[in-house]
Amino acid sequence: MNKVSAYRKSMNMNQSQMAKYLDLSLDAYSRKERGLSEFKKSEMEKFTKVVSTKDPTITVESIFFN
Q: What are the residue boundaries of the HTH cro/C1-type domain, all occurrences included (predicted)?
């Protein structure tokens, strides 16, 4: 399991819910989560924003680049 998937699951969100939050289709989100396409900077920031409600110390870098 990758970090993006783990953080999404820690928020008790399924792929469909996260896709809707990021304004993506389920297929597009699934491809991004599996590493088949890249997240845009704005999507990374929005993803981090929702995860930071549970862990305020989380950063874009720690999710997507470490």
A: 6-48
